[in-house]
Amino acid sequence: MGDSDATGGFALKRRATFAAVKSASLLPMNGKSAAACQSSVTADTSKDNGQGKRDRPLETARSKSRSEKQKCRSDISDRLSCHKTQESLLSSASGFNNYRGILNWCVVMLVLSNARLFLENLLRYGVLVDPIQVISLFLNDPYSWPAACLVIVSNVFVLVALYTERQLSKGSFTELVGFLVHCINMAIMLTLPAAVVLLVPSVTPVGGAFVVGTYTILSLKLYSYKDVNVWCRELSSVKAKKLSRSLSCPSAQHLNGGDRKVCYPGNLTIRDMYYFVCAPTLCYELNFPRSPNFRMSFLMRRLFEMLFFTQLLVGLTQQWMIPIIQSSMKPLEDMDLSRMTERLLRLAVPNHLLWLMFFYGFFHSSMNFTAELLRFGDRQFYKDWWNSESVTYFWQNWNIPVHKWCLRHFYKPLLRRGFSKMVSQSAVFFLSAFFHEYLVSVPLRMFRLWAFMGMMAQLPLVWFVGRFLHGTYGNAAVWISIIIGQPFAVLMYVHDYYVLHHTQEAD
């Protein structure tokens, strides 16, 4: 009886111990029990460590064999399937845009094609370049230089504009009187050179074009000079001191390079006036941005480019353009449309190359040369017009000085007066058409309106390209209008000039 009680008590104690251990294993480990458990696990791990080290090479071998099997399976799958969903490179959906090799191919083909044409020209006509003939285009009579005299006389109009602004600043002239004096001054500037070129036989077409172009640039500059000074007087009259300082005289924190800034009417000096006259811009400011230093190497490079492209333009005109134009006179007289089209396409390539050379030589080389001499800071004379996807973008970016003038002094004033954007844009094209015709017809002493109609034709072209052509197609349309439109106008003017003068000689 006692033994059975002792045995039962021992069994109860063992069951309680097992229950406590089981319950402890289910409870979260914290305090001493967690530490004890951790020590026991560590002891078990240390016991099994030797066995684990022996098993690692076996596991490594198994993983290697597994990777080899996967590689073998991938090789087999690659041999079984070699296609995936993808677009062709020339499709727009592919996103591919590296066509440098095709661009190089186009350049090589262009060079080879023009080299063949140039060699054919040499074999047919021989060497036609004659520098003496070019000099005679400027000087028929070496002792009579009417074009040079007209350029010297232009200083009178500059001084009249300066004198008028000084009188207006002092209150000696009313705004109405000053406006009338400026209008008369600019009207004479546009009519005097035209009258001299048309009435004086010794003025050559090249000399006449130089004089008319010089007076046109001066008239646009003086118009901007008048407007800016009027704006300064308006600001002074309403006592807008803060706005006046920001427009006319920047604060001391904007002074850089030691350049002295001027305020109205301190800008009405001869030095300031002639700096603006010589600067490569049509828009006047009281304080132009100035470059910090003078770069002789940059200046020499631009000078070399100016001389090189001038000689190249003259040589290619004599060697390439003139023979094609002369051979085009007969088809134009006979109104042979097929041969006229063939001559037009033949003339398009050299005319376009000469136009590109003129653009680089004038807008990059000569204007940067002048800007470097005067330390003129704003060198953005053109933008990426070659990427134009619309005709409007081309006219806004290929000649920045003229675009800024039209926007500042013509387009925006029309909008402020209540005109619509369409009417204002048409007025800008009309003004541009007038000056294009003026610069061509006056030196040639004939009025045929080809340049005027060519510029006005840009309006329907702007609408058509903007409405129906976009992206690459719009850019192609802009290039076609440049390449084909210019030689067509050249042929028309040369034909009319040839017929007019040869008919007079025959009579």
Straight-line N-to-C gap: 164 Å
- Mean of residue pLDDT values: 79
Query: Could you spell the SSE succession in H and E letters?
Result: HHHHHHHHHHHHHHHHHH
Measured as a percent range, the helix fraction is over 70%
Count of extended strands: 0
What share of residues are in beta strands? Answer: under 5%
Coarse structural class? mainly alpha
Q: Describe the largest sheet.
A: none
Low-confidence segments: 1-48, 243-258
Could you tell me the radius of gyration in angstroms? 41 Å
Short overview:
The protein is mainly alpha-helical and 507 residues long. Helix content is 76%, strand content 0%.
SSE arrangement:
Elements: H1 2-26, H2 31-80, H3 100-125, H4 131-138, H5 146-170, H6 175-199, H7 205-237, H8 241-248, H9 270-278, H10 296-327, H11 329-334, H12 337-374, H13 391-397, H14 400-416, H15 421-444, H16 450-456, H17 458-468, H18 472-506
Helix pairs in contact: 5-6, 5-7, 6-7, 7-15, 10-12, 12-18, 14-15, 15-16
